[in-house]
Amino acid sequence: MRRQLQEFQVRAANRLRSGQGRKLVIRVVPNAKASAMSVKDDDSPEIESNVEVIQTSMASPKKRGGLSGLWLFWLTLLLGLGGTVAGAFFWLATIPPQANCKNISPIAPETDRLFCAQQAAETGKLDKLLEAITFVQTLPPDHSLYSQARGMMEEWSKSILGFAQAKFDEGDLAGAIAIARKIPSASPFHPQVKERMQQWQLEWRRGEEISKKFHVALKEQKWFEASQLIQNLSALNSPYWDDELIEQHVDRMSLERDAWQQLEEARNFADRKTSENLAQAIALAGKVDSKSYVKPKAQADRNLWSQELLKIAAERFQKEDYDGALTAAKLVPSDASVYTEAQDWIKLGRSYVIAQRDNIFSFLEAKAGVRDISPKSPLYQNAKDTAETWANNLQDLVHMHYAETIANFAQPLAFQVAINQASAIAPQRPGRLQAQTLIAHWRKQIQQIEDRTALLSATQLATPGTLESLKAAVTEASKIKQGQPLRIEAQTYIAQWNKKVQTMEDQPILDLAKGLATQGNLKAAVEAAQKISPGRALYPEAQAALTEWVTQIQTTEDMPILDAAVALAAEGRLTGAINKASEIRYGRALYGEAQGAIARWEAERNAIWEARRRAAEAEASQTEDFSESDFQSQDSN
Protein backbone atom coordinates (compact mmCIF):
# COMPACT_ATOMS: atom_id res chain seq x y z
CA MET A 1 0.00 0.00 0.00
CA ARG A 2 2.85 2.33 0.79
CA ARG A 3 4.56 1.57 -2.49
CA GLN A 4 1.41 2.39 -4.43
CA LEU A 5 1.08 5.64 -2.58
CA GLN A 6 4.61 6.61 -3.45
CA GLU A 7 3.97 5.82 -7.15
CA PHE A 8 0.90 7.98 -6.96
CA GLN A 9 2.93 10.79 -5.42
CA VAL A 10 5.53 10.50 -8.22
CA ARG A 11 2.87 10.69 -10.91
CA ALA A 12 1.24 13.63 -9.28
CA ALA A 13 4.54 15.37 -8.75
CA ASN A 14 5.52 14.80 -12.38
CA ARG A 15 2.33 16.41 -13.55
CA LEU A 16 2.83 19.28 -11.22
CA ARG A 17 6.41 19.76 -12.38
CA SER A 18 5.50 19.51 -16.04
CA GLY A 19 3.61 22.78 -16.00
CA GLN A 20 4.34 26.13 -14.41
CA GLY A 21 1.83 28.79 -13.48
CA ARG A 22 -0.64 26.17 -12.29
CA LYS A 23 -2.59 26.45 -9.03
CA LEU A 24 -4.15 23.91 -6.82
CA VAL A 25 -7.94 23.93 -6.79
CA ILE A 26 -9.76 21.93 -4.12
CA ARG A 27 -13.26 21.26 -5.17
CA VAL A 28 -15.93 19.86 -2.82
CA VAL A 29 -18.13 17.41 -4.59
CA PRO A 30 -21.71 17.78 -3.58
CA ASN A 31 -22.05 14.08 -3.84
CA ALA A 32 -21.87 12.74 -0.38
CA LYS A 33 -20.05 9.66 -1.54
CA ALA A 34 -16.84 11.23 -2.92
CA SER A 35 -14.64 14.24 -2.89
CA ALA A 36 -11.68 14.90 -5.18
CA MET A 37 -8.79 17.30 -5.56
CA SER A 38 -7.92 18.55 -9.06
CA VAL A 39 -5.17 20.71 -10.53
CA LYS A 40 -6.24 23.32 -13.04
CA ASP A 41 -4.27 25.68 -15.30
CA ASP A 42 -5.47 29.22 -15.65
CA ASP A 43 -5.75 28.72 -19.41
CA SER A 44 -6.26 24.93 -19.74
CA PRO A 45 -9.15 22.61 -19.00
CA GLU A 46 -9.37 20.90 -15.70
CA ILE A 47 -7.29 17.76 -15.23
CA GLU A 48 -8.56 15.26 -12.74
CA SER A 49 -5.92 14.06 -10.34
CA ASN A 50 -5.58 10.47 -9.36
CA VAL A 51 -6.09 11.31 -5.77
CA GLU A 52 -8.14 8.68 -4.10
CA VAL A 53 -11.59 9.87 -3.26
CA ILE A 54 -12.12 10.44 0.40
CA GLN A 55 -15.50 9.29 1.19
CA THR A 56 -17.38 10.79 4.05
CA SER A 57 -20.49 9.17 5.33
CA MET A 58 -22.82 11.80 6.33
CA ALA A 59 -26.24 10.86 7.55
CA SER A 60 -29.07 13.12 6.53
CA PRO A 61 -30.46 14.65 9.63
CA LYS A 62 -33.97 13.95 10.31
CA LYS A 63 -36.12 16.92 10.19
CA ARG A 64 -37.07 17.46 13.64
CA GLY A 65 -38.32 20.73 12.53
CA GLY A 66 -36.82 23.86 13.83
CA LEU A 67 -33.49 25.62 13.83
CA SER A 68 -31.45 22.96 15.66
CA GLY A 69 -31.48 20.51 12.75
CA LEU A 70 -30.27 23.08 10.23
CA TRP A 71 -27.50 24.22 12.55
CA LEU A 72 -26.32 20.70 13.09
CA PHE A 73 -26.14 20.17 9.33
CA TRP A 74 -23.94 23.18 8.69
CA LEU A 75 -21.71 22.36 11.63
CA THR A 76 -21.13 18.86 10.31
CA LEU A 77 -20.40 20.22 6.83
CA LEU A 78 -17.84 22.68 8.12
CA LEU A 79 -16.09 20.03 10.17
CA GLY A 80 -15.89 17.67 7.14
CA LEU A 81 -14.59 20.41 4.85
CA GLY A 82 -11.95 21.36 7.37
CA GLY A 83 -10.74 17.78 7.62
CA THR A 84 -10.49 17.49 3.84
CA VAL A 85 -8.42 20.67 3.55
CA ALA A 86 -6.13 19.52 6.32
CA GLY A 87 -5.63 16.16 4.61
CA ALA A 88 -4.75 17.83 1.31
CA PHE A 89 -2.16 20.06 2.88
CA PHE A 90 -0.69 17.09 4.68
CA TRP A 91 -0.38 15.20 1.37
CA LEU A 92 1.35 18.14 -0.32
CA ALA A 93 3.79 18.42 2.49
CA THR A 94 4.78 14.77 2.08
CA ILE A 95 5.63 14.87 -1.80
CA PRO A 96 9.19 13.53 -2.29
CA PRO A 97 11.86 15.95 -3.72
CA GLN A 98 12.54 16.06 -7.54
CA ALA A 99 15.32 13.69 -8.80
CA ASN A 100 18.63 15.23 -10.11
CA CYS A 101 18.75 13.72 -13.65
CA LYS A 102 22.11 15.34 -14.43
CA ASN A 103 23.76 13.22 -11.79
CA ILE A 104 21.47 10.23 -11.41
CA SER A 105 22.95 7.28 -9.55
CA PRO A 106 22.75 3.73 -10.96
CA ILE A 107 21.26 2.63 -7.64
CA ALA A 108 18.58 5.33 -7.64
CA PRO A 109 14.97 4.14 -7.39
CA GLU A 110 13.37 2.96 -10.65
CA THR A 111 10.80 5.75 -10.33
CA ASP A 112 13.53 8.40 -10.42
CA ARG A 113 15.41 6.66 -13.23
CA LEU A 114 12.23 6.28 -15.30
CA PHE A 115 11.44 9.89 -14.70
CA CYS A 116 14.92 10.89 -15.91
CA ALA A 117 14.61 8.55 -18.93
CA GLN A 118 11.33 10.19 -19.89
CA GLN A 119 12.85 13.62 -19.48
CA ALA A 120 15.81 12.65 -21.70
CA ALA A 121 13.49 11.21 -24.37
CA GLU A 122 11.48 14.42 -24.41
CA THR A 123 14.55 16.26 -25.80
CA GLY A 124 13.97 14.40 -29.10
CA LYS A 125 17.67 13.58 -29.51
CA LEU A 126 18.62 10.17 -30.85
CA ASP A 127 21.19 9.37 -28.21
CA LYS A 128 18.77 10.32 -25.44
CA LEU A 129 16.03 8.17 -26.94
CA LEU A 130 18.45 5.24 -27.11
CA GLU A 131 19.45 5.80 -23.47
CA ALA A 132 15.77 5.82 -22.46
CA ILE A 133 15.08 2.57 -24.32
CA THR A 134 18.20 1.00 -22.81
CA PHE A 135 16.88 1.77 -19.32
CA VAL A 136 13.41 0.40 -20.07
CA GLN A 137 15.02 -2.86 -21.28
CA THR A 138 16.41 -3.37 -17.79
CA LEU A 139 12.93 -3.46 -16.16
CA PRO A 140 11.64 -6.99 -15.46
CA PRO A 141 8.18 -7.87 -16.80
CA ASP A 142 6.76 -8.13 -13.28
CA HIS A 143 7.74 -4.58 -12.42
CA SER A 144 4.84 -2.29 -11.58
CA LEU A 145 6.17 0.30 -14.09
CA TYR A 146 6.75 -2.26 -16.88
CA SER A 147 3.41 -1.70 -18.63
CA GLN A 148 3.75 2.05 -18.56
CA ALA A 149 7.42 1.75 -19.71
CA ARG A 150 6.48 -0.43 -22.74
CA GLY A 151 4.09 2.23 -23.88
CA MET A 152 6.88 4.76 -23.67
CA MET A 153 9.22 2.36 -25.48
CA GLU A 154 6.82 2.10 -28.42
CA GLU A 155 6.67 5.89 -28.78
CA TRP A 156 10.42 6.20 -28.47
CA SER A 157 10.93 3.42 -31.06
CA LYS A 158 8.77 5.35 -33.49
CA SER A 159 10.92 8.42 -32.93
CA ILE A 160 14.12 6.42 -33.45
CA LEU A 161 12.70 4.93 -36.65
CA GLY A 162 12.02 8.47 -37.77
CA PHE A 163 15.75 9.21 -37.44
CA ALA A 164 16.52 6.06 -39.43
CA GLN A 165 14.02 7.05 -42.14
CA ALA A 166 15.66 10.45 -42.41
CA LYS A 167 19.00 8.74 -42.95
CA PHE A 168 17.51 6.57 -45.68
CA ASP A 169 15.91 9.60 -47.33
CA GLU A 170 19.39 11.16 -47.38
CA GLY A 171 20.74 8.13 -49.23
CA ASP A 172 22.50 6.51 -46.25
CA LEU A 173 21.09 2.98 -46.22
CA ALA A 174 23.79 1.64 -43.92
CA GLY A 175 23.24 4.49 -41.48
CA ALA A 176 19.48 4.00 -41.54
CA ILE A 177 19.75 0.26 -40.86
CA ALA A 178 22.35 0.85 -38.16
CA ILE A 179 19.96 3.20 -36.33
CA ALA A 180 16.93 0.96 -36.84
CA ARG A 181 18.79 -2.06 -35.49
CA LYS A 182 19.29 -0.22 -32.22
CA ILE A 183 15.56 -0.55 -31.58
CA PRO A 184 15.41 -3.69 -29.41
CA SER A 185 13.39 -6.71 -30.43
CA ALA A 186 11.51 -6.32 -27.12
CA SER A 187 9.96 -3.09 -28.43
CA PRO A 188 6.25 -3.41 -29.32
CA PHE A 189 7.12 -1.52 -32.52
CA HIS A 190 9.90 -3.93 -33.60
CA PRO A 191 7.84 -5.82 -36.27
CA GLN A 192 7.16 -2.53 -38.06
CA VAL A 193 10.86 -1.67 -37.82
CA LYS A 194 11.86 -4.99 -39.38
CA GLU A 195 9.34 -4.52 -42.17
CA ARG A 196 10.60 -1.00 -42.80
CA MET A 197 14.22 -2.19 -43.09
CA GLN A 198 13.20 -4.83 -45.62
CA GLN A 199 11.42 -2.15 -47.66
CA TRP A 200 14.52 0.02 -47.57
CA GLN A 201 16.77 -2.80 -48.73
CA LEU A 202 14.42 -3.76 -51.55
CA GLU A 203 14.06 -0.16 -52.63
CA TRP A 204 17.81 0.31 -52.46
CA ARG A 205 18.50 -2.79 -54.54
CA ARG A 206 16.08 -1.58 -57.19
CA GLY A 207 17.69 1.84 -57.24
CA GLU A 208 21.19 0.40 -57.39
CA GLU A 209 20.22 -1.94 -60.24
CA ILE A 210 18.74 0.94 -62.24
CA SER A 211 21.73 3.14 -61.41
CA LYS A 212 24.14 0.38 -62.46
CA LYS A 213 22.36 -0.03 -65.80
CA PHE A 214 22.41 3.75 -66.18
CA HIS A 215 26.17 3.92 -65.77
CA VAL A 216 26.64 1.02 -68.19
CA ALA A 217 24.54 2.94 -70.74
CA LEU A 218 26.69 6.04 -70.18
CA LYS A 219 29.87 4.06 -70.78
CA GLU A 220 28.41 2.72 -74.03
CA GLN A 221 27.08 6.17 -75.05
CA LYS A 222 23.48 4.93 -75.12
CA TRP A 223 21.95 8.27 -74.27
CA PHE A 224 18.31 7.31 -74.95
CA GLU A 225 18.54 4.22 -72.76
CA ALA A 226 20.15 6.30 -70.01
CA SER A 227 17.25 8.79 -70.21
CA GLN A 228 14.73 5.96 -69.85
CA LEU A 229 16.55 4.65 -66.78
CA ILE A 230 16.45 8.10 -65.21
CA GLN A 231 12.67 8.04 -65.64
CA ASN A 232 12.58 4.61 -63.97
CA LEU A 233 14.20 6.11 -60.88
CA SER A 234 11.24 8.43 -60.42
CA ALA A 235 9.03 5.38 -59.85
CA LEU A 236 10.90 4.51 -56.65
CA ASN A 237 9.27 5.53 -53.38
CA SER A 238 12.25 7.39 -51.96
CA PRO A 239 13.07 11.10 -51.92
CA TYR A 240 16.74 10.19 -52.32
CA TRP A 241 16.25 8.26 -55.55
CA ASP A 242 13.35 10.34 -56.84
CA ASP A 243 14.87 13.78 -56.27
CA GLU A 244 18.53 13.95 -55.43
CA LEU A 245 19.69 10.91 -57.43
CA ILE A 246 17.67 11.84 -60.51
CA GLU A 247 19.26 15.28 -60.53
CA GLN A 248 22.69 13.70 -60.07
CA HIS A 249 22.07 11.27 -62.93
CA VAL A 250 20.87 14.03 -65.24
CA ASP A 251 23.96 16.05 -64.43
CA ARG A 252 26.14 12.98 -64.93
CA MET A 253 24.63 12.26 -68.36
CA SER A 254 25.19 15.87 -69.38
CA LEU A 255 28.76 15.64 -68.12
CA GLU A 256 29.38 12.41 -70.09
CA ARG A 257 27.95 13.83 -73.32
CA ASP A 258 30.06 16.96 -73.02
CA ALA A 259 33.11 14.82 -72.30
CA TRP A 260 32.53 12.66 -75.40
CA GLN A 261 32.05 15.75 -77.52
CA GLN A 262 35.33 17.20 -76.27
CA LEU A 263 37.15 13.94 -76.99
CA GLU A 264 35.74 13.70 -80.53
CA GLU A 265 36.80 17.27 -81.21
CA ALA A 266 40.26 16.50 -79.88
CA ARG A 267 40.51 13.41 -82.11
CA ASN A 268 39.62 15.53 -85.15
CA PHE A 269 42.57 17.79 -84.37
CA ALA A 270 44.88 14.82 -83.83
CA ASP A 271 44.04 13.32 -87.25
CA ARG A 272 46.11 16.06 -88.91
CA LYS A 273 49.28 14.63 -87.33
CA THR A 274 51.15 17.94 -87.01
CA SER A 275 52.82 18.89 -83.75
CA GLU A 276 50.61 21.97 -83.38
CA ASN A 277 47.38 20.03 -83.94
CA LEU A 278 48.52 17.22 -81.65
CA ALA A 279 49.19 19.80 -78.94
CA GLN A 280 45.70 21.25 -79.41
CA ALA A 281 44.19 17.76 -79.25
CA ILE A 282 46.09 16.98 -76.03
CA ALA A 283 44.99 20.25 -74.45
CA LEU A 284 41.33 19.72 -75.41
CA ALA A 285 41.31 16.10 -74.20
CA GLY A 286 42.87 17.27 -70.96
CA LYS A 287 39.76 19.38 -70.27
CA VAL A 288 37.59 16.25 -70.15
CA ASP A 289 36.09 16.02 -66.66
CA SER A 290 38.09 13.67 -64.46
CA LYS A 291 34.87 12.19 -63.03
CA SER A 292 33.58 11.10 -66.45
CA TYR A 293 33.90 7.61 -67.90
CA VAL A 294 35.50 9.19 -70.94
CA LYS A 295 38.48 10.40 -68.93
CA PRO A 296 40.47 7.11 -69.14
CA LYS A 297 39.97 7.03 -72.92
CA ALA A 298 40.90 10.69 -73.15
CA GLN A 299 44.02 10.04 -71.11
CA ALA A 300 44.89 7.02 -73.26
CA ASP A 301 44.54 9.19 -76.37
CA ARG A 302 46.65 11.89 -74.76
CA ASN A 303 49.35 9.31 -74.10
CA LEU A 304 49.13 8.11 -77.71
CA TRP A 305 49.33 11.65 -79.09
CA SER A 306 52.22 12.40 -76.76
CA GLN A 307 54.05 9.41 -78.27
CA GLU A 308 53.36 10.88 -81.72
CA LEU A 309 54.93 14.14 -80.56
CA LEU A 310 58.01 12.23 -79.44
CA LYS A 311 58.21 10.56 -82.86
CA ILE A 312 58.16 14.00 -84.46
CA ALA A 313 60.83 15.14 -82.02
CA ALA A 314 62.97 12.09 -82.89
CA GLU A 315 62.59 12.72 -86.64
CA ARG A 316 63.58 16.35 -86.26
CA PHE A 317 66.49 15.35 -84.07
CA GLN A 318 67.76 12.95 -86.75
CA LYS A 319 67.60 15.82 -89.25
CA GLU A 320 69.66 17.90 -86.79
CA ASP A 321 66.71 20.24 -86.27
CA TYR A 322 67.35 20.43 -82.56
CA ASP A 323 65.19 23.50 -81.97
CA GLY A 324 62.29 21.75 -83.71
CA ALA A 325 62.83 18.63 -81.61
CA LEU A 326 62.77 20.73 -78.46
CA THR A 327 59.53 22.43 -79.53
CA ALA A 328 57.78 19.09 -80.16
CA ALA A 329 58.99 17.52 -76.90
CA LYS A 330 57.89 20.54 -74.86
CA LEU A 331 54.30 20.01 -76.05
CA VAL A 332 54.03 16.71 -74.11
CA PRO A 333 51.91 17.37 -70.96
CA SER A 334 53.14 16.53 -67.48
CA ASP A 335 50.45 13.86 -66.93
CA ALA A 336 51.35 11.90 -70.08
CA SER A 337 52.85 8.43 -69.70
CA VAL A 338 55.87 9.49 -71.80
CA TYR A 339 56.44 12.77 -69.97
CA THR A 340 59.73 11.56 -68.47
CA GLU A 341 60.96 10.48 -71.89
CA ALA A 342 59.87 13.86 -73.29
CA GLN A 343 61.96 15.58 -70.62
CA ASP A 344 64.91 13.42 -71.67
CA TRP A 345 64.42 14.52 -75.29
CA ILE A 346 64.37 18.13 -74.10
CA LYS A 347 67.61 17.60 -72.19
CA LEU A 348 69.22 15.89 -75.18
CA GLY A 349 68.02 18.49 -77.69
CA ARG A 350 69.02 21.41 -75.47
CA SER A 351 72.45 19.79 -75.07
CA TYR A 352 72.97 19.84 -78.84
CA VAL A 353 71.73 23.44 -79.11
CA ILE A 354 74.16 24.54 -76.41
CA ALA A 355 77.02 22.55 -77.96
CA GLN A 356 76.60 24.46 -81.23
CA ARG A 357 78.22 27.47 -79.56
CA ASP A 358 81.43 25.45 -79.93
CA ASN A 359 83.40 26.68 -76.94
CA ILE A 360 84.77 25.12 -73.80
CA PHE A 361 82.00 26.35 -71.53
CA SER A 362 79.24 25.28 -73.93
CA PHE A 363 80.60 21.73 -74.06
CA LEU A 364 80.83 21.62 -70.26
CA GLU A 365 77.20 22.73 -70.00
CA ALA A 366 76.05 20.37 -72.77
CA LYS A 367 77.76 17.44 -71.08
CA ALA A 368 76.15 18.26 -67.74
CA GLY A 369 72.74 18.54 -69.42
CA VAL A 370 72.59 14.85 -70.39
CA ARG A 371 74.35 13.45 -67.36
CA ASP A 372 71.18 13.03 -65.26
CA ILE A 373 69.23 11.01 -67.87
CA SER A 374 68.29 7.78 -66.08
CA PRO A 375 69.76 4.43 -67.20
CA LYS A 376 66.16 3.23 -67.47
CA SER A 377 65.38 5.85 -70.10
CA PRO A 378 65.14 4.79 -73.79
CA LEU A 379 67.51 7.66 -74.54
CA TYR A 380 70.15 6.59 -72.04
CA GLN A 381 72.53 5.08 -74.60
CA ASN A 382 72.07 8.09 -76.85
CA ALA A 383 72.71 10.39 -73.91
CA LYS A 384 75.77 8.35 -72.91
CA ASP A 385 77.20 8.55 -76.43
CA THR A 386 76.40 12.24 -76.58
CA ALA A 387 78.12 12.91 -73.26
CA GLU A 388 81.17 11.02 -74.54
CA THR A 389 81.09 13.09 -77.74
CA TRP A 390 80.96 16.33 -75.79
CA ALA A 391 83.83 15.11 -73.60
CA ASN A 392 85.89 14.34 -76.72
CA ASN A 393 84.95 17.66 -78.26
CA LEU A 394 85.95 19.38 -75.04
CA GLN A 395 89.29 17.59 -75.02
CA ASP A 396 89.85 18.43 -78.69
CA LEU A 397 88.88 22.02 -78.06
CA VAL A 398 91.42 22.26 -75.26
CA HIS A 399 94.10 20.91 -77.64
CA MET A 400 93.05 23.38 -80.31
CA HIS A 401 92.93 26.27 -77.88
CA TYR A 402 96.45 25.49 -76.72
CA ALA A 403 97.63 25.01 -80.30
CA GLU A 404 96.17 28.31 -81.43
CA THR A 405 97.72 30.09 -78.47
CA ILE A 406 101.15 28.70 -79.35
CA ALA A 407 100.65 29.48 -83.05
CA ASN A 408 100.10 33.15 -82.25
CA PHE A 409 103.91 33.49 -81.83
CA ALA A 410 104.07 33.11 -85.65
CA GLN A 411 107.41 31.30 -85.63
CA PRO A 412 108.19 28.03 -87.44
CA LEU A 413 108.92 26.26 -84.14
CA ALA A 414 105.69 27.56 -82.58
CA PHE A 415 103.75 26.49 -85.64
CA GLN A 416 105.29 23.03 -85.43
CA VAL A 417 104.29 22.70 -81.75
CA ALA A 418 100.75 23.80 -82.67
CA ILE A 419 100.69 21.22 -85.46
CA ASN A 420 101.75 18.49 -83.03
CA GLN A 421 98.95 19.49 -80.60
CA ALA A 422 96.30 19.54 -83.34
CA SER A 423 97.53 16.22 -84.72
CA ALA A 424 96.60 14.58 -81.40
CA ILE A 425 92.93 14.80 -82.44
CA ALA A 426 91.98 11.37 -83.78
CA PRO A 427 90.47 11.03 -87.27
CA GLN A 428 87.10 9.96 -85.89
CA ARG A 429 86.75 13.01 -83.65
CA PRO A 430 84.36 15.83 -84.60
CA GLY A 431 87.16 18.39 -84.25
CA ARG A 432 89.39 16.52 -86.69
CA LEU A 433 88.33 18.62 -89.71
CA GLN A 434 89.00 21.88 -87.95
CA ALA A 435 92.33 20.56 -86.71
CA GLN A 436 93.38 19.51 -90.19
CA THR A 437 92.34 22.87 -91.56
CA LEU A 438 94.47 24.68 -89.01
CA ILE A 439 97.34 22.25 -89.50
CA ALA A 440 97.28 23.00 -93.24
CA HIS A 441 97.19 26.70 -92.48
CA TRP A 442 100.11 26.50 -90.06
CA ARG A 443 102.13 24.38 -92.49
CA LYS A 444 101.46 27.00 -95.12
CA GLN A 445 102.66 29.63 -92.66
CA ILE A 446 105.86 27.64 -92.07
CA GLN A 447 106.35 27.20 -95.81
CA GLN A 448 105.67 30.87 -96.39
CA ILE A 449 108.32 31.81 -93.88
CA GLU A 450 110.75 29.41 -95.56
CA ASP A 451 109.79 30.70 -99.02
CA ARG A 452 110.19 34.28 -97.91
CA THR A 453 113.66 33.48 -96.70
CA ALA A 454 114.58 31.80 -100.00
CA LEU A 455 113.09 34.64 -102.05
CA LEU A 456 114.89 37.24 -100.00
CA SER A 457 118.14 35.38 -100.60
CA ALA A 458 117.42 35.24 -104.34
CA THR A 459 116.73 38.95 -104.59
CA GLN A 460 119.96 39.66 -102.75
CA LEU A 461 121.83 37.46 -105.27
CA ALA A 462 120.23 39.29 -108.20
CA THR A 463 121.18 42.73 -106.91
CA PRO A 464 124.49 43.04 -108.87
CA GLY A 465 122.59 42.47 -112.14
CA THR A 466 125.34 40.43 -113.77
CA LEU A 467 124.63 37.38 -115.86
CA GLU A 468 126.05 35.07 -113.20
CA SER A 469 124.23 36.79 -110.32
CA LEU A 470 120.93 36.66 -112.17
CA LYS A 471 121.32 32.97 -112.92
CA ALA A 472 122.20 32.29 -109.29
CA ALA A 473 119.08 34.23 -108.22
CA VAL A 474 116.92 32.16 -110.58
CA THR A 475 118.38 28.95 -109.17
CA GLU A 476 117.68 30.08 -105.60
CA ALA A 477 114.13 31.20 -106.32
CA SER A 478 113.41 27.96 -108.21
CA LYS A 479 113.65 26.14 -104.89
CA ILE A 480 110.11 27.42 -104.17
CA LYS A 481 108.15 24.57 -105.72
CA GLN A 482 104.67 24.30 -107.12
CA GLY A 483 101.98 24.68 -104.42
CA GLN A 484 104.17 26.60 -101.99
CA PRO A 485 102.75 29.92 -100.73
CA LEU A 486 105.22 32.24 -102.53
CA ARG A 487 105.42 30.22 -105.71
CA ILE A 488 103.70 32.89 -107.82
CA GLU A 489 105.77 35.70 -106.41
CA ALA A 490 108.92 33.66 -106.92
CA GLN A 491 107.95 32.88 -110.51
CA THR A 492 107.41 36.56 -111.14
CA TYR A 493 110.93 37.36 -110.00
CA ILE A 494 112.31 34.39 -111.95
CA ALA A 495 110.56 35.62 -115.12
CA GLN A 496 112.09 39.07 -114.67
CA TRP A 497 115.54 37.70 -114.02
CA ASN A 498 115.28 35.18 -116.91
CA LYS A 499 114.29 38.01 -119.24
CA LYS A 500 117.34 39.94 -118.23
CA VAL A 501 119.52 36.85 -118.64
CA GLN A 502 118.06 36.03 -122.08
CA THR A 503 118.39 39.63 -123.16
CA MET A 504 122.00 39.69 -122.11
CA GLU A 505 122.59 36.36 -123.94
CA ASP A 506 120.62 37.08 -127.17
CA GLN A 507 121.31 40.76 -127.67
CA PRO A 508 124.67 40.14 -129.42
CA ILE A 509 123.00 37.70 -131.83
CA LEU A 510 120.27 40.17 -132.70
CA ASP A 511 122.79 42.98 -133.12
CA LEU A 512 124.82 40.75 -135.49
CA ALA A 513 121.74 39.93 -137.59
CA LYS A 514 120.81 43.58 -137.85
CA GLY A 515 124.36 44.43 -138.91
CA LEU A 516 124.25 41.78 -141.67
CA ALA A 517 120.92 43.10 -142.88
CA THR A 518 122.33 46.60 -143.02
CA GLN A 519 125.12 45.32 -145.18
CA GLY A 520 122.47 43.76 -147.50
CA ASN A 521 123.24 40.22 -146.53
CA LEU A 522 119.63 39.44 -145.71
CA LYS A 523 119.95 35.68 -145.84
CA ALA A 524 122.81 35.71 -143.36
CA ALA A 525 120.81 38.11 -141.18
CA VAL A 526 117.85 35.70 -141.26
CA GLU A 527 120.03 32.77 -140.34
CA ALA A 528 121.50 34.70 -137.43
CA ALA A 529 118.10 35.87 -136.11
CA GLN A 530 116.72 32.32 -136.25
CA LYS A 531 119.19 31.33 -133.54
CA ILE A 532 117.01 33.15 -130.97
CA SER A 533 114.59 30.44 -129.77
CA PRO A 534 110.86 30.92 -129.16
CA GLY A 535 110.05 32.04 -125.63
CA ARG A 536 113.28 33.97 -125.26
CA ALA A 537 113.11 37.60 -124.23
CA LEU A 538 114.24 39.00 -127.63
CA TYR A 539 112.36 36.47 -129.71
CA PRO A 540 109.47 38.84 -130.63
CA GLU A 541 111.92 41.54 -131.68
CA ALA A 542 114.01 39.02 -133.63
CA GLN A 543 110.90 37.65 -135.32
CA ALA A 544 109.79 41.12 -136.35
CA ALA A 545 113.17 41.86 -137.95
CA LEU A 546 113.32 38.41 -139.48
CA THR A 547 109.88 38.83 -141.05
CA GLU A 548 110.94 42.10 -142.60
CA TRP A 549 114.07 40.60 -143.98
CA VAL A 550 112.28 37.51 -145.36
CA THR A 551 109.74 39.79 -147.04
CA GLN A 552 112.48 41.71 -148.74
CA ILE A 553 114.10 38.46 -149.92
CA GLN A 554 110.83 36.99 -151.25
CA THR A 555 109.88 40.24 -152.95
CA THR A 556 113.22 40.33 -154.70
CA GLU A 557 112.77 36.71 -155.77
CA ASP A 558 109.10 36.84 -156.88
CA MET A 559 108.91 40.32 -158.45
CA PRO A 560 110.29 39.09 -161.86
CA ILE A 561 107.53 36.44 -161.97
CA LEU A 562 104.83 38.98 -161.24
CA ASP A 563 106.27 41.40 -163.82
CA ALA A 564 106.30 38.66 -166.47
CA ALA A 565 102.67 37.86 -165.74
CA VAL A 566 101.71 41.50 -166.05
CA ALA A 567 103.47 41.66 -169.39
CA LEU A 568 101.55 38.66 -170.69
CA ALA A 569 98.30 40.20 -169.56
CA ALA A 570 99.16 43.40 -171.37
CA GLU A 571 99.55 41.39 -174.56
CA GLY A 572 96.06 39.93 -173.99
CA ARG A 573 97.41 36.58 -173.06
CA LEU A 574 95.34 36.43 -169.91
CA THR A 575 95.53 32.67 -169.40
CA GLY A 576 99.31 32.76 -169.64
CA ALA A 577 99.41 35.69 -167.21
CA ILE A 578 97.24 33.78 -164.75
CA ASN A 579 99.42 30.69 -164.96
CA LYS A 580 102.58 32.73 -164.52
CA ALA A 581 101.32 34.58 -161.44
CA SER A 582 100.21 31.28 -159.87
CA GLU A 583 103.89 30.35 -159.55
CA ILE A 584 104.10 32.61 -156.50
CA ARG A 585 103.33 30.22 -153.59
CA TYR A 586 101.16 30.73 -150.61
CA GLY A 587 102.91 32.48 -147.76
CA ARG A 588 105.29 34.38 -149.97
CA ALA A 589 105.53 38.13 -149.69
CA LEU A 590 103.89 38.86 -153.08
CA TYR A 591 101.30 36.09 -152.80
CA GLY A 592 98.47 38.44 -151.98
CA GLU A 593 99.34 40.84 -154.76
CA ALA A 594 99.61 37.96 -157.22
CA GLN A 595 96.25 36.56 -156.19
CA GLY A 596 94.66 39.97 -156.67
CA ALA A 597 96.02 40.21 -160.21
CA ILE A 598 94.88 36.67 -160.97
CA ALA A 599 91.35 37.55 -159.89
CA ARG A 600 91.27 40.61 -162.20
CA TRP A 601 92.60 38.71 -165.15
CA GLU A 602 90.13 35.85 -164.63
CA ALA A 603 87.28 38.35 -164.60
CA GLU A 604 88.51 39.96 -167.85
CA ARG A 605 88.89 36.58 -169.46
CA ASN A 606 85.44 35.50 -168.41
CA ALA A 607 83.96 38.70 -169.81
CA ILE A 608 85.65 38.13 -173.18
CA TRP A 609 84.43 34.57 -173.28
CA GLU A 610 80.88 35.68 -172.52
CA ALA A 611 80.94 38.31 -175.28
CA ARG A 612 82.15 35.77 -177.77
CA ARG A 613 79.44 33.34 -176.77
CA ARG A 614 76.75 35.91 -177.23
CA ALA A 615 78.10 36.95 -180.64
CA ALA A 616 78.14 33.36 -181.76
CA GLU A 617 74.61 32.87 -180.63
CA ALA A 618 73.51 36.01 -182.52
CA GLU A 619 75.24 34.92 -185.70
CA ALA A 620 73.72 31.50 -185.46
CA SER A 621 70.29 33.02 -185.03
CA GLN A 622 70.67 35.20 -188.14
CA THR A 623 71.78 32.23 -190.23
CA GLU A 624 68.80 30.25 -189.14
CA ASP A 625 66.40 33.08 -190.00
CA PHE A 626 67.85 33.43 -193.53
CA SER A 627 67.56 29.73 -194.19
CA GLU A 628 63.91 29.68 -193.21
CA SER A 629 62.96 32.64 -195.41
CA ASP A 630 64.76 31.13 -198.40
CA PHE A 631 62.89 27.90 -197.92
CA GLN A 632 59.60 29.67 -197.86
CA SER A 633 60.46 31.51 -201.08
CA GLN A 634 61.31 28.28 -202.87
CA ASP A 635 58.10 26.72 -201.70
CA SER A 636 56.04 29.54 -203.08
CA ASN A 637 57.66 29.12 -206.52
UniProtKB/TrEMBL annotation:
The chain crosses the membrane at residues 70-93. Residues 614-637 are annotated as: Disordered. Keywords: Membrane, Transmembrane, Transmembrane helix. It comes from the Bacteria. The keyword Membrane applies. This is Chromosome segregation ATPase. It comes from Funiculus sociatus GB2-A5.
